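Assemble and predict.
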Amino acid sequence: MKITDVEAIIVRAADQVTLIGDGTQDTVIIVVHTDEGIDGVAEVDSAPYVVKSIIDMPASHMACQGLKDLIVGEDPFDVEKIWNKMYEFAYYHGRAAAVIHAMSGIDNAIWDIMGKAVGKPVHKLLGGAYQTEIPAYISILMPDTVDEVKRLVDYHMKENYLGIKFGWGGLGNNFEKDCELVRAAREALGPDKKLMIDIAMEWKDYKVALKNCKAFEEYDVFWVEEPFRVERDKDFTKLRNAVNLNITAGEELFHFDEFKKYIDNGCVDILQPDISRCGGLTVARKVRDYAYNAGIPIVPHNFKSGLLLSGTMQFIATLPNALFLEYCGQETTLSRGLIKEPIEVHNGMVTIPDRPGIGATIDWETVNKYRVG
Ligand SMILES: [Mg+2]
């Protein structure tokens, strides 16, 4: 089998794009075509126009080529070889961020092809499933007011999620207000559900972070996510050792080496790689194995449409120490309408897709309606 083409399709529900922390307002879909009529699909959580350029760009010279030109003609089953080829030739674009995100999309689409070619779900190719379903927590943006926090808890928790994560919004800039919002969330949730808080890298001062985490302990916060920019790995370790709640990160990390550093240096209690950013399933499975050996559980970052969710579920199936799934609470056109068989939550549980490949069928009507590139 040979790869014949790679498409990067930008989808944007334009009238909904605002400057809030909502990654479901637009997206980029990767389609890898083969000469046997099997197409692989994947979604990338990144800067869509940048990812498309990295894939589509015409060659400048031998050492500077777009990812599409690099992999056309390759056999999808040579997935590791293809990954290394893309990485090697990413010298000019930069072996980081959007390049690794674009590589991740291609890599995940290739895993989809391999699964479809052998008629098995991708989790079979990744080593086998430890679970067929997983409890979910609902992941939403932190609103501005206590009343809205309570309303959102009441609205979402009817589905009996394992818990709720509030993130982004204005968190991280006002100690009193943050404590008020977190207290309101705990009161609305009751004592038995998990409460997670995502600071989205807003804390600049270590002492402010420590003071906040100590205050959050009173409200039984299960984890604080991304307290600092991920470059501040030493502050992660210091904070983790000083508080009685879990510290998490991983969505901004790419390449195995960064995850290894975070594990080796004791930066986090739980790792959150995003399969569309970390280098794809080819890297995610290595992170999984290294983290498992170190006793660090993985809860993958997942805040896009059902297409990324499908690939993420394949990965979650293979986690020997899985905890739960991040289920994106943004009820937008793309988050809910991009694939034909949406992955739904029933009484807090989500079933892992068992169809060949990643188990998702793109709804091309939605894609074509909102396609902008
Ligand atoms: Mg986050």
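Residues 125-368 form a domain with the TIM Barrel fold (CATH 3.20.20.120).
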